[in-house]
Amino acid sequence: MITPAASTQKVFDFDLNTCTGCSACAIACAIENDLDFGSSWRRVETFNERRLAVLPTFHLSLACNHCEQPPCADACPALAYSKDPRTGAVLLDESRCIGCRYCAWACPYEAPTFHDQRGVMEKCTFCAPRLEQGRVPACASICPTGALEVVDQQDARGRPSAPGFPETDARPGIRFSELHRRRPPVAEETTVAAEMLRRESASTIDLRSEWPLVVFTLLTPMLVGVVAAGVRAPVWLFTLLLLLGAALSALHLGRPKRAWRAVLNLHRSWLSREVVGYALFGATALAWLLFEGGPWRIAALVFGAGTLFAMDRLYEVTGMAGLRWHSARALGTGLLAAALAAGSPLAVGLVGLAKGLALVARRVRWARKGQPQRTGSGATRLVTLAAGLTLAAGGSWVAASLVLLASEVLDRIDFYAELEVTTPRRSMDAALDEALSHPDRARRTFAPQPAQEGVTP
Amino acid sequence: MATFTTACPRNCYSTCSLRVEVEDGRLRSIEAHPDNRATVEGPCLKGLSYVERQVSPDRILHPLRRLHDGRFARVGWDEALDEIADRLERLRRSDGPQSLLYYSASGTKGLLNGVGLDFWKKWGGCTTTYGDLCWPAGLEATRLTLGENKHNAPWDLANARLIVMWGKNQAETNIHQGIFVDQALRAGAKLVVIDPRRTETAERADLLLQPRPGTDGALALALAGELLRRDAVDHDFLDAHVSGLEDFAASAGAWTLERAAEVCDLDVGDVGRLADWMAEVSPMTINAGFGMQRYTNSGQTMRAMIALCVLTGNLGKPGAGWIFADLQSMIFDEVKDPVAFYPPEDASGPVRVAISTTRLGVEMQEISDPPLRMMWVERGNPVTQNPNTAEVLRAMRGLDFRVVVEQFLTDTAREADLVLPAKTLFEQSDVIGAYWHPYVQLKQKILEPPGEVRPESEIYWHLAERLGIDPGEEIPAPGDEAVEAFLERRLEPFEGLDLEALRKGPLLAPGHQEIAFADHVFPTPSGKIELRSGEAVERWGVDAVATHAAPTVQADEPGHGDRLWLMTPNTKNRIHSQFNNLRMIRAYSPRPLLHVHPADARRRGLHDDDRARVSNERGHFVVAVRLDPSLREGCVSITNGWWISEGGGSNFCSPSLETDMGHGAAFHDDVVIVERLS
Questions:
Q1: Per-residue confidence (pLDDT) for residue A453, from 0 to 100
Q2: What's the confidence (pLDDT) of residue B308?
Q3: Buried b / exposed e across B330-367, counting CB within 10 Å, b at 16+?
Q4: Which H/E stretch holds residue B81?
Q5: How far apart are CA B392 and CA B379, in angstroms?
Q6: Has residue A6 got a pLDDT over 60?
Q7: B175 interaction partners in chain A (CB closer than 8 Å)
Q8: How far apart are CA A415 and CA B290, in angstroms?
Q9: What is the pTM (predicted TM-score) of this model?
Q10: Does the structure show a pLDDT above 50 at B397?
Q11: What's the complex ipTM?
Q12: Rounded to an integer, what is the distance from CA A388 to the centroid of its chain?
């Protein structure tokens, strides 16, 4: 990816003090880009929307920030993203997009959105055609208060961060003015506040649409585990399951016919690596089943483990904490499958214990952070895990496998339900929570400070 | 792609100058016209949403007739016009022309709006309404005190060092003013916001006062009294330009800061701080909104507020003044508002100006000799917007025949027997003024009307033809040529104002003063600023000087009763009942919400998204609840203009009460019971 020189990179320059949250920018975007009425590539997020008197209320008008290190481009397995060297615009070539939505997980600003009818992602183009004509992007051009501007990077007056704006190392092309609060905050009941601050934002990752991924990410570790244990499944069955996994993950794409493009970004995308790993694992495993060569099995094991590793790593792009030691990691499921297939009570016991500990640790951390607990699913998971381990210890392998499979399915579903992509909305909600639970710190952050005199408007 | 100059004709402060791109008969983009210094950055979301409004599948493109089951069926223009003409002929013979009520409101600005009344005069007369729903109390208070409604140009606000936004949520209702507020603040000005709600505007305030609704007069009088006690007044200015000071001082003197703080339920320290700033900081601009002058005591309240500018000499100089309405661009009106909408002194003409628009529903039913049989509505949505909806509906349903000219099936259009399709701002040229900035603008025809849409002037012309009425010059013939000739005739008296010049961009109104009253000419009876007004006594029966009396109703003290103030402010997402039917706007305001303070909600067992029944002796509506700690306790708030069909209906509770002066609507003398619906 070519990174434009600072002199040509354009950035949004946004004034938190003059934005009224009117959303004209979002509508201007829709008009300029001929989007469906009611949709937009730009949105206005509000900090402290309930106007609790202890804190200021302000808005962030956000779309794609045309990052210097765009995480969407790194994540995209199909090399659909590029960065315009003249303006710094991060551009999406829809003809290359396979509709895997992975860029939406990677982008902390919710910039790429999936277009249902067209089956591809779409996003802010920085109004590239306007920039080429030397015109300002539509959103900045019509902002009624002049709060949103687009300027050359070196001319930007603001800072790269704002309260609640997701912090990443993507180097987003946006600058924020400092918030000038002009009067002291008023204390008020925070219990009332807590009641009102029930979250309404829906998760970006929706279980109903992601079920093929749940199946794929359970099936693959099981296949790898069986091969690892040296159990030779019937070739037809193994082939069928391999193809099922591939078909599920391809059908989940907006543009299944372009699925082959998923291997193109081996250089940076964990998704490409997973896809390539899966193909190589399947090929070598089949070769082992057909030709019985020890080296084939070793190759299949290496590619299989690599696939599971990539499968786990690719979720880290969401920015969600605690994924590394998650009880539903694919690698763990693979190990459990291997132990079961190998018929080793000790191995099953050890892996199962590790999974149980990981689950408990995760829930304890959640409880400390005050996140909502899914007590029912956690308890069911623990009970089935314990039951499965007991059955395995007693030598009832079929029953143990079925119970443990159910347990893994539960955990995987939980994993997807819990998976949260960093978004501006969540980041601002978290900042609000933080401010309310540490009022002293918040008071300093949002202390009244009159605007500097002599600053040109 | 062709680019045109035009202007947004909505009932809005900003009245933006626009540059519109058209491609293949379709709006391609809408941007700000750079020649209007007041709206130079860009139109608001509503202005942009014209791109959808123009082509909305919900637009009415053909005459519609209501069927027995309430649905509407398309009819041809000939059939519609023949039926109207036939009914008018019979009506003229049976009950006389005055049995027709011609009702028009503020849906769009323009000189061609006058064609309607000219038609009805030619037909033999009609009944019309007097007064206005929006701003009369403030207009009349200003006229009585200063002689004329005008203020400094919008951009001059940057020169103010103390800005008092009194009941005005500029950040939503006058977004473009934010630029000048910001310029003033950056130069060191202080911003004070007075509003029972902590609004978006209040975010930038140095001081926010959230008084008990309807008590602003007490606050203003106490501040005036304090300024007088401290002798922090401009004696030279008072001596030279003001009459009635002594009487006013006696009224204000009865109010101390402590007494006002108690009546308004404010912190006396905060009130004192405002008094300090008024005494010390200059120039000061007080900018009053419209919502706070919709109480029965508002005219007197506004007079007291203006007096604060008068006492401190903050008039006729940069950065100073009283911003309420600037009618300097209304150059075509022989008589300006508010006098223009008062009932005539001689009531003998063919037009019977006899129904208070505030009491529309009640008086439509009460009027006799002749009683009303038919109603013609254009540019208005009285079912949604006028007070006391149940009476408005009853009155309309009691008529023999109703014609509504509309773009969409609004609550009022749904009551019609015939709905005639209305033009949009892009489909007929017209010339408009504004009430915040001093520009005269051409709202240019850019697109051909779609379907069978006909501008109102054409509807009248065709009706005139059927009824044998000579259209004369007053009713231009169909086609652009006659409309342009009509407009040129109106522009003719004004040097430099013609269509050709206006096609290029907005023009400052001839003779406009950038700094209003800089010449110290006050066209009152005495030629001076009148803190004491004889006309106030004669015309309105109020005291000669500003006084404070409580509104006709009172909410209960929190915890000591059920009744809450119902406030119905405006939102950035609509102009009254326009725009929210568009998907572009719905994305930001999907449904009506009743904002309730958490403490009031707790007493009623209300939570977010609960359905609440809001009621009083006039009626009720049901709406979803949103807890809102930024409201003053004891108040609930819902933005006005939601159609009943969208789940709105706040005017079912509002009273048919006029303001103390100006024949305005005291929407906010409104207390309600709010209950949880299980």
A1: 45
A2: 98
A3: bbbeeebbbeebbbeeeeeeebbbebbbbbbbbbbbeb
A4: helix B77-94
A5: 17
A6: no
A7: 20, 22, 144-145
A8: 54
A9: 0.94
A10: yes
A11: 0.96
A12: 32
